[in-house]
């Protein structure tokens, strides 16, 4: 099997390494020059020399749509995994997207899988999700002010960077029906993008959900609290713990590659657990709705 990874930043390097560990022959498209026969400066050269079974689009968000259009123009019909979020803004690209998925790998975390089990036959009343991490500590060997996260124009900002929450919440609890959002740059971080987002919304099933995302938290935290008529559930991603009505369940620790490996396996095996192209579009719609709500300071309705 041959795979092509488009974009060779930190996430592209991770995808390439994991695919090689799976025994897949990997080539890379990167704007940087690498003295290697498997590296290409553009897609045209990559397609001239090889045919591919699997392509991962892992360049900056602002270039996702352009890369996908190039694949369509080259009549590529194999599996595609596009890093999250799917696009910077909503795009109209006509192609058969049945084999195209979005890299919301948090779906494959054992805590999310356990939460699904705990929620069987439960009526969910409310959900509160939180994720915060201090941006300068994300990439210790890099200048955060020069990262794509710091640049709104390149697709950065906490709303898109940490959109995993938007995906898994909609996957678990249903599409949003109405929302109101606050999106701001509130800290002294030297960035052009937003560092704080709060979204409150109702789902089609009338569940109340609140989400807070930020680049500010020096105590890295990621958790979700779910209230049902019989249970209070909290999953703590940092400590790998589920708390159900005060009873703690410690799950077996996983390494940082685990969810990425499971995601690649799922894409290639046709698993329904992957975030589909249509679901990725739903996340982009929610992002745009949140931006509209914050700008206009009003509720926004879906559809």
Automatic annotation (TrEMBL):
Coiled coil: none annotated. It comes from Candidatus Pristimantibacillus lignocellulolyticus. This is Gfo/Idh/MocA family oxidoreductase. SUPFAM superfamilies: Glyceraldehyde-3-phosphate dehydrogenase-like, C-terminal domain, NAD(P)-binding Rossmann-fold domains. One of its GO terms (molecular function) is nucleotide binding. Residues 2-94 form the Gfo/Idh/MocA-like oxidoreductase N-terminal domain. It comes from the Bacteria. Residues 123-227 form the GFO/IDH/MocA-like oxidoreductase domain. Pfam families: GFO_IDH_MocA, GFO_IDH_MocA_C3.
